[in-house]
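Bug #77: duplicate submission created two jobs. Keeping one. Sequence:
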Amino acid sequence: MKNQILSGWFTACLLLINAAPLLSQTVIGNAPPDNSAALLLQDGNKGFLLPRMTTADRDSIRLPAPGLMIYNLSNYCVEINTGSASRPEWLSTGCRRASVASLNCNALVTSGNTAAYIAVQGVSLSLSYSGGNGGAYDELFLPSRGVTGLTAHLTAGNVSVGTGLLSFAVSGTPSAPGNALFDLEFGGETCSLLLTVADVNECGAFLAPGVWKKWMCFNLGAGSTSINPFAPAWNSVGSYWRWGNLPLSAPGPAGPTPTQTNEGNIQGWPALSVVAPDDAWSDLTKTTKDPCPDGFRLPTKENWDQLIANNPLSYTGTWIENTSNYNSGLMVGDRLFLPAAGQRGMTYGESDNRGDAACYWSSSRFEGNNLSAWSFFAENGIASTVLLSRNSGFSVRCISE
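Kept job's structure:
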């Protein structure tokens, strides 16, 4: 009898031991528990609802435990604290993705101005939408087509519930005038954002604070006026004039190769004793010998001094003398570029200093010396007005009358 009692007691202990894992579990519902779970919720037609709160509510939780979970009503995401209680880091998962009923492409609003070959600043595109669901969208970078060189950037965020705006910041430098298109796929809808890039119809610089003056975009005699006027190129160098002369004195390069530099002596280059009369060019009026086209004239010495004093000057290129070096020049502000075209020698008209000097005539003669006149002269890092021989051949850049 005693042995039977002991045997029964031993059997009951084994049953308790085997049942021990189940004693730490909570079961809500009728399903059998899983041994790895401390809590089981089971229902045939209901789910588990996490605490629902806004971001502001979440941030007001004092010392949120690591692993704490909520449903964020501000961004429609399940969030888990993957940091510590004192320094929470909320990981978003299972977020509602943005969707919209329509993108109002025809009502795109552009802020700021965009011109060909000029780096854009402060340009944005605002696109309205309707039927937003409040969901999240990722950061987007849209490259332009048509006119290339631009990117439209949309930072990550959430659409509004209902109507709202998407704001794209535009950056880059447009490759040409015309239409830049940004192809957008967003929230189940597609759209092409149109940005009109203006033609470069005005170049210029400041002559005084707030006083902007139009200049021609290219040197006289430039091989092309349809290229980028703000970048060095062989066909932006142009021709060369002696002071006070209307006819072309010497041609510029005929092409980009060393055999097309037109660097040699100029037959019939006037003798040093033959100089233009003092009134050939004038600061007071545009004379009949002024080579600039209608609406423009030669700049005065004062104009050049004003340009130097009132604009940032940026020196680009190598500034190394070579008759086929066309990569050097001076950027004046952001709307005027002066190639380092060098000069033509005063004795024979040969090419000199191309690639390492920018030499441009003014209309200003030197009082009391009929052999010299004022010019704009720039080397790498230095720009000033200087007196030089009237028989030298310099570039001409015209200013608006």
